[in-house]
Design brief:
Keywords: Membrane, Transmembrane, Transmembrane helix. The chain has 4 helices and no strands. By secondary structure, it is mainly alpha-helical. It has one domain. The longest helix has 28 residues.
């Protein structure tokens, strides 16, 4: 369960952002400001699945994995600007960012096969 707690937390934060955004926002706007946790969790699960299927040891695989997390960070920045709900919900990003750092670290190890 330890490997999957962080992505579940990030997914929960995304669900909160999506549900707390006002209903008058367009769907694509709500998706953009709630994408961060869902996308990072999918990247992480994909990295673990890739490692499980191939016993990955590809040093090059960490670079695209890290670069794809820029999309999640951009979604967080978008949420700070365009989220129409109460700004106190942004405090959840502290937890989400901590979880993202953990999943980036573990996912990078899974893709490169260089475990600590």
């Amino acid at each position: 369960m330890g490997l999957f707690l962080s992505p579940l937390i990030m997914l929960a934060v995304s669900i909160v952002y999506f549900s707390k955004g006002d209903d008058e926002s367009r769907l694509w706007v709500r998706l953009l400001f709630s994408l961060h946790g869902m996308f990072a969790a999918l990247l992480y699960i994909g990295a673990l699945a890739y490692w499980q299927m191939t016993q990955a040891s590809h040093a090059w695989a960490a670079t695209p994995y890290l670069l794809l997390h820029i999309i999640s960070l951009a979604s967080i920045a978008y949420a700070f600007v365009y989220f129409p709900g109460p700004k106190r919900w942004h405090l959840l990003q502290i937890v989400s960012l901590f979880c993202m750092v953990q999943t980036v670290f573990i996912g990078s190890m899974a893709l490169t096969g260089e475990w600590l």
